[in-house]
């Protein structure tokens, strides 16, 4: 690969691909908007909402159309997953799980689009940098997992009451038979609880981000095979088919990853929420 | 960024995957969807059929009930007529019987009165003969004086 374009070019290529379309809105590195992530996330949300609400509005109890059938299958799948895991009653969990699954899947799916297509088109339109996969941006996944984290807390308080919710922070998972034991175990319980709660959003966000970032990076590396190729170079005729094969295999494999990651994010959200609703 | 051969190869790989999905994945999904549509359509058709046959059954049940009502009314009417007839017949039989009995009784009474009259006449004749014999002091030959006796008896009878 290095022979094709030289290390500098390849590094530039990769760096360029991993560069967000940034817009500083304040002082410091924190106050930067990733316009591309925001735009494509909103686009996915719009597509999801448009398709889903259109079907929901036109839903018929008679013989459904093919697309309604497809949506029904997804809804049924999500609903079954929720019912198997969460045994309480909640109007929130199933729609939330459906939204997480569909939205994450759509955002992940953008990774399937050939990695150079949209950025090249954007460059032609005058946009210098563009990353189209919002879930390969830690900001997006962290935002989603923090939302889920907040929901977990709200859900726990709503289902158990504030007294039990706070009480369990000090009395679970280590139970003591008497008051002195309870007081002694309270710090350990609180510490464990805080770690447990903190780990959840972090692991949720990092798992999705890591998978999607790695997937994107591998697409970029595969693209590097023909970086700076020329018709005069003999290697081009070897590397181009190789790139095709690698790209094909990785794209096909990536179908599994994007679906699985969307499913895992949804499933863990359901599990966390049902755990929050249960008494210890 | 300038377009390079990379983009072309990426596109080919992408469409190769899309083609694979279309070729090997899509038919299964479509088959499942069509199967589902078919099942729903069949279910709806079956439900409609069930409703229709229910309505039909209701209709035929109504018909049967109506027919049964009509037949019951007819039977009741027949029974009424028959009872009237029977009563009429019984009345006829009874009156005939009564007339017969009355006639018999009358006949018997007439017979009885005739017989009593006969007896009375005989007694009267005997009495007359007895009286006359007592009067004459001798036996009267009843046969010899039958004419006379008869005449006497007749007179008594009339008298």
TrEMBL record, chain A:
Membrane association type: Multi-pass membrane protein
Stated role: Key component of the proton channel; it plays a direct role in the translocation of protons across the membrane.
Gene coding for it: atpB
HAMAP family, per database record: ATP_synth_a_bact
Protein localization: Cell membrane; Membrane
Record key words, sorted: ATP synthesis, Cell membrane, CF(0), Hydrogen ion transport, Ion transport, Membrane, Transmembrane, Transmembrane helix, Transport
GO molecular function term, any single one: proton-transporting ATP synthase activity, rotational mechanism
Superkingdom as given in the UniProt entry: Bacteria
Name of the protein: ATP synthase subunit a
Automatic annotation (TrEMBL), chain B:
GO CC annotation: endomembrane system; plasma membrane; proton-transporting ATP synthase complex
GO molecular function, one term: proton-transporting ATP synthase activity, rotational mechanism
Topology versus the membrane: Single-pass membrane protein
Keywords: ATP synthesis, Cell membrane, CF(0), Hydrogen ion transport, Ion transport, Membrane, Transmembrane, Transmembrane helix, Transport
Localization in the cell: Cell membrane; Endomembrane system
Keyword Transmembrane set for record: yes
Pfam families for the chain: ATP-synt_B (PF00430)
Residue spans crossing the bilayer: 6-26
Alphabetical list of InterPro entries matching this protein: ATP_synth_B-like_membr_sf, ATP_synth_b/b'su_bac/chlpt, ATP_synth_F0_bsu_bac, ATP_synthase_B_chain
NCBIfam families linked to this entry: ATP_synt_b, PRK05759.1-2
Function, as annotated: Component of the F(0) channel, it forms part of the peripheral stalk, linking F(1) to F(0). The b'-subunit is a diverged and duplicated form of b found in plants and photosynthetic bacteria.
Subunit structure: F-type ATPases have 2 components, F(1) - the catalytic core - and F(0) - the membrane proton channel. F(1) has five subunits: alpha(3), beta(3), gamma(1), delta(1), epsilon(1). F(0) has three main subunits: a(1), b(2) and c(10-14). The alpha and beta chains form an alternating ring which encloses part of the gamma chain. F(1) is attached to F(0) by a central stalk formed by the gamma and epsilon chains, while a peripheral stalk is formed by the delta and b chains.
Family listed: Belongs to the ATPase B chain family.
Protein known as: ATP synthase subunit b
Annotated source species: Steroidobacter agaridevorans
Upper classification of the organism: Bacteria, Pseudomonadati, Pseudomonadota, Gammaproteobacteria, Steroidobacterales
Name of the gene: atpF
């Amino acid at each position: 690969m290095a022979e094709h374009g030289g290390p500098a070019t390849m590094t530039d290529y990769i760096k360029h691909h991993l560069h967000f379309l940034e817009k500083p809105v304040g002082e410091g590195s924190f106050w930067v908007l990733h316009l591309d992530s925001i735009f494509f996330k909103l686009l996915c949300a719009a597509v999801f909402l448009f398709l889903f609400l259109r079907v929901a509005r036109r839903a018929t109890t008679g013989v459904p159309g093919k697309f309604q059938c497809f949506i029904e299958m997804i809804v049924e799948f999500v609903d079954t997953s929720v019912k198997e895991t969460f045994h309480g009653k909640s109007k929130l969990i199933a729609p939330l799980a459906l939204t997480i699954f569909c939205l994450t899947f759509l955002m992940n799916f953008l990774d399937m689009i050939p990695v150079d297509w949209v950025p090249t088109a954007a460059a032609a339109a005058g946009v210098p940098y563009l990353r189209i996969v919002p879930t390969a941006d830690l900001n997006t996944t962290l935002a989603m997992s923090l939302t889920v984290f907040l929901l977990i807390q709200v859900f726990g308080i709503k289902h158990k009451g504030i007294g039990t919710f706070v009480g369990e922070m000090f009395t679970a998972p280590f139970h003591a038979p008497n008051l002195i034991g309870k007081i002694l175990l309270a710090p350990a319980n609180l510490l464990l609880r805080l770690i447990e709660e903190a780990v959840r959003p972090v692991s949720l966000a990092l798992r999705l981000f890591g998978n999607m970032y790695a997937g994107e990076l591998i697409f970029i590396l595969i693209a590097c095979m023909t970086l700076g190729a020329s018709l005069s170079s003999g290697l081009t005729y070897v590397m181009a088919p190789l790139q095709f094969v690698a790209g094909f295999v990785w794209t096909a494999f990536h179908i599994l990853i994007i679906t699985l990651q969307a499913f895992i994010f949804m499933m863990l959200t359901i599990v966390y929420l049902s755990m929050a609703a249960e008494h210890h | 960024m300038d377009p390079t051969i990379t983009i072309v190869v990426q596109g080919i790989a992408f469409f190769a995957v899309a083609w694979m999905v279309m070729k090997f994945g899509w038919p299964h999904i479509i088959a499942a969807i069509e199967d589902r549509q078919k099942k729903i359509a069949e279910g709806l058709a079956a439900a409609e059929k069930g409703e229709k046959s229910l309505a039909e059954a209701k209709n035929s049940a109504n018909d049967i009930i109506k027919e049964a009502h009509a037949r019951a009314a007819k039977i009741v009417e027949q029974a009424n007529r028959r009872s009237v007839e029977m009563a009429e017949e019984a009345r006829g039989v009874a009156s005939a019987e009564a007339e017969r009995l009355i006639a018999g009784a009358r006949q018997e009474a007439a017979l009885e009165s005739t017989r009593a009259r006969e007896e009375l006449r005989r007694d009267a004749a005997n009495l007359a003969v007895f009286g006359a014999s007592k009067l004459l002091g001798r036996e009267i030959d009843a046969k010899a004086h039958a004419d006379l006796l008869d005449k006497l008896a007749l007179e008594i009878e009339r008298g």
